[in-house]
Recover the amino acids of this structure.
């Protein structure tokens, strides 16, 4: 698929995202308390570019990426952002170094927070969008590896349509999120065809979300990323 064909297919997928209103089923559910100032919900943002699935797509427009970076959600979008320089973005730039331009950035949740720019994430936001749109986006981009930011986004990949998130077969002390990160464990997202046979397999590497060092300090996070990047050019 040519780059222009990929761009066009992503534009068409973005149109489906723009027409989707399934997020209403989440913030109108009993678990969402209307009027709770600490709560939040996702919805389309008037200032969002309708030609992209979510605004993080506009950071590095590499449509033939080696690395697909999957975050959890973009946060609030009051106006289009052209300078990606948040604390999270700066740390990602530091971790990736020269690999930055080999990436494409997306989020598990396609829409935007309506109240806060960050804070607790409702995993239903992520799983709903992943189940509807992620497989199509992944097949269009066809990266070599996937790096997933944070446990919530990682777990949401298990909801990818017609797929299987397979944990490592090698013996491990446990398969907790921390253990997967500590061991740079190779998790596989296996896309299945209609007969449930494996059609395509993508290596998935979970990392702690770089927005905070509360659960893992900066040096350890950088070490995690470098171990993953060192595997990128190795034969499989």
């Amino acid at each position: 698929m040519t780059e222009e064909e990929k761009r066009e297919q992503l534009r068409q997928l973005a149109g489906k995202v723009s027409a989707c209103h399934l997020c209403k089923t989440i913030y109108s559910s009993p678990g969402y308390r209307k009027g709770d100032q600490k709560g939040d919900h996702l919805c389309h943002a008037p200032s969002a570019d309708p030609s992209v699935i979510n605004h993080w797509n506009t950071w590095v427009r590499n449509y033939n990426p080696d690395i697909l970076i999957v975050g959890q959600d973009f946060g609030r979008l009051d106006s289009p952002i052209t300078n990606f320089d948040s604390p999270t973005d700066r740390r990602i730039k530091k971790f990736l170094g020269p690999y930055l331009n080999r990436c494409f950035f997306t989020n598990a949740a396609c829409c935007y927070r309506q109240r806060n720019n960050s804070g607790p994430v409702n995993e239903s936001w992520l799983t709903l969008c992943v189940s509807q749109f992620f497989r199509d986006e992944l097949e269009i981009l066809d990266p070599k590896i996937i790096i997933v930011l944070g446990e919530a986004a990682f777990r949401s990949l298990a909801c990818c349509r017609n797929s299987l998130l397979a944990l490592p077969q090698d013996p491990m002390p446990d398969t907790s999120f921390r253990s997967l990160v500590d061991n740079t464990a190779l998790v596989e997202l296996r896309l299945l065809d209609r007969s449930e046979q494996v059609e395509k397999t993508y290596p998935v590497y979970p990392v702690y979300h770089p927005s905070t060092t509360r659960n893992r300090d900066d040096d350890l996070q950088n070490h995690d990323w470098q171990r993953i990047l060192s595997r990128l050019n190795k034969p499989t």
